[in-house]
Each structure stands twice: as C-alpha cells, then as structure tokens.
Amino acid sequence: MADATERAEANIDESKLTVGKPKKRAVGAPAVLHSMEIALDQMGPARSVRTLLKVNQVTGFDCMGCAWPDPAHRRHTAEFCENGAKAVAEEATTRRVPPAFFAAHPLAELETWDDFALGKQGRLTHPMLLEAGDTHYRPVSWGRAFDVVAEELDALDSPDEAVFYTSGRTSNEAAFLYQLVARALGTNNLPDCSNMCHESSGAALNETIGIGKGSVTLVDIETAGLILIAGQNPGTNHPRMLTSLEKAKKQGAVIVAVNPLREAGLLHFDNPQTVKGMVFRGTDLADTFLQIKLGGDQALFQALGKVLIELDANPAAGRAGGPRGTVLDHDFIAHYTQGFEAYREAMAALRWADVETATGLTEKQIRKVGELMAASKGNIVCWAMGLTQHKHSVAMLRDVVNLLLLRGDIGKPGAGVCPVRGHSNVQGDRTMGIWEQMPDAFHDKLDAEFAFSSPREHGVDTVGAIRGMRDGTIKVFLGMGGNFAKATPDTAVTEAAMRSLRLTVQVSTKLNRSHVVTGRRALILPTLGRTERDVQVTGPQMVTVEDSMSMVHESQGGLEPASRHLRSEVAIVAGLAERVLRGRADTAHVDWRGLAGDYRRIRTHIEHVIPGFDAYEEKLGMPGGFVLPHGPRDHRSFATDTGKAKFTVNDLEYPTVPEGRLILQTIRAHDQYNTTIYGKDDRYRGIHGGRKVVLVNAKDLAAQGLADGDLVDLVSEAPDGDRRAEGWRAVAYRTPIGCAAAYYPETNVLVPLDSVADTSNTPTSKSIVIRLERARVAVPA
Q1: How far, in Å, CA of 107 to CA of 118, rounded?
Q2: In 572-719, which ranges are E strands?
Q3: What is d(CA 274, CA 75) in angstroms, rounded to the nearest whole number?
C-alpha cells in the first residue's frame, strides 16, 4: 500500500525531464538490462526467471502485450521483448492493492494521481464497490457485486442504454461469453479498442478483398522480396517484429521504412538473442527511409501505383528489367480483380506536384521505391496507427490494396497485406463476435446454437458510446479490461460523460484512471491475469488467443493467483450472466455455471458458431496452434459482393496546415504500452525523466518565435472550440516541416470527439491541427 510519500514519488515529475540525442539503433544490451531491472523490481529474482521463461512458450502463456505471432517451431528460450517483459512484470508483481489501500485513500485523492502512480501500486485483490455519495471504495462480495449490476440493468428502459466494452487482451473464451451475455440481454452495444485502432484497416480490407484481416504469415515476412513499413514503429510497439525483419534481411529482402519520425527501430537492430547483436554490430534494417509528412501516405501509395503502371508500359524508363507488360501481373488482374481500368486512368491523371506537396518527398525518391517494388519477387505492406487514424484512412488503405493487386501480391508466398495489431487478442475478440455490426450469418448461427433471438440492429462503437453517455442515452458502462477513460479521445468530454452514468463496472487486474472516473455507483471486479493458474471445478483451465496473423493457440499461466478472491474473466462473465439473466425463459437453458467450470464446453459452442474452429480442441494440440482460414491468402477467393478483389478509385486527400499551425500526431514512448506507463523515459528518442514534450522541427519553432526548451501550451482547434494541454516542453526534433508529435494518452485531451475517420469512425489522433502558445503555467520545480 502506498502512502502520500510513495504516491508523490510515483507521479511523474516533469521538472526532472532531460533531452539527449535520439538513438540510431534499437534493442541490444540496454533493452536486456532495462527488462531485468523492471522484472527484478516488480517480481524478484526467482519469480522473474520462473515467469519470463514461460512467456510465449508452447506450454506457457501468451504475452499480454502485442499481437505479433510466435514462431511455430524453434522458439527461443527467451521468446519475449523488452516491452513484453515489462508487461509481464507489471502483472506478476508482488505488490498488492487490498481493501486497506482504498480505506486509506479517498477517491478525491486518487483522482490526483497519474496512471503511472496508480499502476505502480500493484494487483487488485478484492471486489470493490463505490456507492452513490461514498468517498471511498469498500470491499464487496461477488454476489453483492453482481446484484448491483443486475439492479442497474433492470432499471434501464432499454438494453441499449448499456454498453459492454472490451479491451484486446480478453481471451477467446471470455470474449465469446461476453458478447453472448450482451446479446442475450438484447443489445449489440459492443464497442472495443479496435474501434480506435485498426477499424480503418478492417473497413478497407473487407471492402476490397472480402476479409478484414491481414493475409501474411511469419514465413511470408521472412521470405518477402520487399517489405514496406508505413505508419508503424516496431522498435517500441512490436519489438519482436524486429527479429522477423532481421531474418528477412538475411534472405535478401529490401526494407522500405515510411514514417514522419526517424525511429531507431526502423533503422538498425541489435538482436539480444545473438552474439552478433549483443557484442558486434547487429543488422541494418531500412534500405530506404522516406520521411513523409503526416497523412501523406495515400499520395505515396497512389504514386507508387502510377510508377508500376508506367514501368509496365515502358520498362526501359526504370530499372525493373524484362519486356513490356511484365511488371504488372496481368493474369491475376484479369482473373481475380475488377476495376483496374478505372484505377489506371485515375493514376495516369495523378499530378506529381500534388504528390510532392502531400508527402514532402520528391518524385525521384518515390520512383526509386517503385522500381524496387517492380523488381521484387513479392511485396508486403505493413502498417499500424500511423495509417489508420486520419480522416481519409480508409481511402488510404484502399490504395495500399490497389498497389498490391497490381503485381498479384495477394495470395502468393512472401507477399500481402499486414496490418500489425496491438493488444494480444484484439483480433481474436473480433472473431469471437465483439463488434457492434456482426453480420447476419453470425447471428443466425448464434441463435441456432443457443435457441434465442439475438438483436440485429447495429449497436454503438467507442465514439458512439461516448456520445451516448454524454447525451444521456447510455446509462451503464461495463468494461472488460483496458483503461477506457485514458484510451479514448477528447478526455474532458469522455470523463464528464462517464461521471454522468448510473454505474461503471471495470474488470481489471490493476488500478488505472478508469477506476477513479466513475458513475454514480462504481464496481472494480478483480480478475486473474495471463500469468496465473486458472483452476475451476473440472481442474486447471487454459484459454486461447488469436494473433495478428490469424494463428490460434493456447495460453496457460502457472503462478499462484494474486488473491484467493480473484475470479477468471470467464467466471466473472458467467457469474454476471447467471444473475443478470435470471428468470429469462429464452436463455434459461444456458448452463453458465457449467461453462465457467469447463472452458472446453465454451470452445464446443465456438466450433458450432464461428467458421474455422471445427475440431477446436484437436487443433490446439498442433505445434503453435492452428491458422484460421483466409480466402485471399489460401486460394485467392474474395468474399466481396462481386467475388473479386476490388481496385478502387479514391480522391487524393491529405491534411493541410493553416498558417502558424502544426499537424500533431500522438505517439507512444518506449516505456509504455498503450495507456500503461512503465517508466519516465523514451530512450530511443533521447527523452528521459518526463513525458510532457512536443517534438517540433526547429524551423517551425523559430517561425513562431520559440526555441528548443521553451514551455508551451498545445491548443487544438476544432469547429466546436479549442482544447488545451498546458505546460509542455518544446523539443527541436527532426520532424517534417509543419508536423509535430507528442505522447498519448496525455494528448488525448486535444483530439475532438467528432474528428473521426470516414467510414470507420476511428478518432483522427494522427492529424490534429494545433497551435503552440507560450505556457500559461510553469511546470513545478
């Protein structure tokens, strides 16, 4: 338990912030040392060894960090990265947050703590209830906790006045039960973290190739001819990807990095699992680095398509080699696609002056990459939030697909689309039905399996949920993991909306901001973590997860639970269902208690409802699990409305910077994962001891009469008014002119709720118009 002194030390003290030179290489000995430092501090020596050696192992547990896949064979003894080690240490910590902690710290005090301080207190141990008007959370029995939820849900005028939010780390089994409870109650209000991340990817891919998932495997990555990485920083966000990129380089792959920031993890990798990486010089990664303006990627992809089409007509114009008509895959285009002629005409009309304005790159730079793609045996495009969080993100990603269709780079080895997902099972949750817009085919099978009628009217996504809470049409919030208050846009609006609710329920392992931004009543329901043993009435249980490349595999923890009062996510959902749905004839036959006692029974239901899960238990015995079917990858079949992959014609869009303004992108520091802050440093970018920095080109600072080190306020501009983040240190940094970057989630306050991507409704966190003003308040000394 923390006293006031411990809390003060835990809160990030921005006055100690220092700025050095950005690194040019990632991982190596510093990553190993920092991993061990955090692990030893949180777990101690013996627990650290016992736990870390089970991460991502066939007989161990799946890392609760990113969704990068595990090798099917020959896994390293230390099959984890620095950020994975931090995530495991935070969950397997020996620190505890018992009822005495809440008795000592009123809610008003906890509201003043930052997420770093809250998270450092350790694991939650008991269910806790905040009653209306209370100043402190108090311990509550599980039975009473479920009664409180039932009371509030029963008082609603409609099931659609409740939302069931899901974070990405929830297992397949828990996610399947969770959506079943929501739909049995009568609502499709199932927002999840995908709404804020890769929803744009799913929208674009579903439209163009008929499935909203990536088409590549680890083997494809490691045998590709060219890998283009855009809007992604693997060194910080998906460090294990660097090992796959290194293998690809050894096989002769060309790597093209496209990013507004020159990230260390895109440039050079010192593999800590090899002598070369630890002692000698590791591996240079990017053969070409394009420092693109924020939001200019669509113009780049269109221009690359234009180059490939021109090279096909006139190979002598570049270095592609071969006779005319051999750059594009004309047989693939004719048999498997539609819309090529319209796309070709649109690219012929594309003006290089517009491309150069949008990207900040030269025609020569882009043509060079086009020639590399034309000469490659297979091209892969990888991307993450840098492409998905713009107003025109869906159109941008349709142009990624256009580019790959030109050379038949869908459904052939070493080629394809690779949206790199964040949370460990975020893709699996969507597969299990965590989506507000599941198709009728899913509902039909769900209804047949459980003999009830699920609602067909689409529910709300994350942005829609916040709007509903704000407007009073949503009154109860249930969160399965995550940190909704911090992860979402427009912080002030979101927090006010959450405080207006009748009840907020958080299923969690640790404290975060969402536990102190509450409705009139609030519940904290503590759950087992991935690292812990899950023993039910039929014995030890395992859960399953799906990675970023559609591989499904098992996960089973081995540690003693942090408290005997914890319940698994499955048990919490089943217990909630048993109480909330009590007396309903249409769901009375569902044996919730039996499902909680034996997860194999849940997987049997999944087999019957979701395609690709036949012989579920048997397939889980395969080394590394099994891969789900993917029509475009497996046999070039496309489940679009025409049965073919679609070339699309998209108007060129890109952000414009008004005079005296900048375009801001939100970014992660190296010492964080999503909203979880592990430490105060971002060593790859040279930032130490603080987080309130804004990275700005020195010329932009000078143009506004500012200098490196000045304190500024960040003010975002939107039609409904300005939003302000106070007291940030301006850092002269190598960014494109007119572009700036600052850390999420602190900058979420600047992202207007109504600034969203077309089609996907994803917040536009990578293209926020801001101005810099000299700080109105100083950072405390």
Answers
A1: 12
A2: 626-627, 645-646, 662-667, 672-673, 676-677, 687-688, 693-696, 711-716
A3: 14
CA R_g for the chain: 25
271, two tokens: 């593999």
What element of type H or E holds 47?
Answer: helix 45-52
Q: Are 501 and 474 in contact (CB under 8 A)?
A: yes
The CATH architecture assigned to 99-195+425-623 reads 3-Layer(aba) Sandwich (3.40)
Count Cα atoms within 13 angstroms, Cβ side, for 306: 19
Transcribe 77-90 into DSSP letters.
Answer: TT---HHHHHHHHH
Structural contact between residues 772 and 704, judged by C-beta atoms closer than 8 angstroms: yes
Cα separation, 206 vs 526, whole angstroms: 36
Are the C-beta atoms of 234 and 421 separated by less than 8 Å?
no
On whether the pTM is more than 0.90, the answer is yes
User: Tokens 């609710």 — which residue?
Assistant: 501
* Model pLDDT, residue 85: 81
The reported pLDDT for the residue numbered 562 is 95
Q: Quick one: DSSP state of residue 335? A: H
Sort strands 476-480 and 162-166 into parallel, antiparallel or unpaired: parallel
Query: Is residue 366 exposed (0-12), middle (13-18) or buried (19+ Cβ within 10 Å)?
Result: buried
Whether the CB-CB separation of 406 and 374 falls below 8 Å is answered with no
> How many other β-carbons are positioned within 10 Å of the β-carbon of residue 313?
13
| Two structure tokens written together for 492 | 């002030």
The DSSP annotation for 262-302 comes to --HHHHEEE-TTSHHHHTS--EE--SEEE-PPTT-HHHHHH
User: How is residue 693 written in tokens?
Assistant: 């920095």
**Residues of the chain whose pLDDT is less than 50?**
1-10, 275, 779-781
Give me the pLDDT at residue 13, please: 61
Q: What is the DSSP letter of 68?
A: P
Predicted pLDDT of residue 1: 34
- Counted residue by residue, the chain has a size of 781
For CATH 3.40.50.740, the residue range(s) in the chain are: 99-195+425-623
Q: Show the tokens assigned to 140.
A: 């509550």
**Cβ(431)–Cβ(677) below 8 Å:** no
Residue 544 carries which side chain, given as an amino acid letter?
T
Determine how many CB atoms are found less than 10 A away from the CB of residue 41: 14
Q: What is the pLDDT of residues 74-106, one digit of tens each?
A: 777 666 677 878 888 888 899 999 999 999 999
The secondary structure of residue 61, as a DSSP letter, is: B
d(CA 610, CA 172): 11
CATH topology of domain 662-774: Barwin-like endoglucanases (2.40.40)
Name the nearest CA neighbour of 413 among 216, 551, 681.
216
End-to-end, the C-alpha distance of the chain in Å comes to: 27
- CATH superfamily of domain region 199-419: Dimethylsulfoxide Reductase, domain 2 (3.40.228.10)
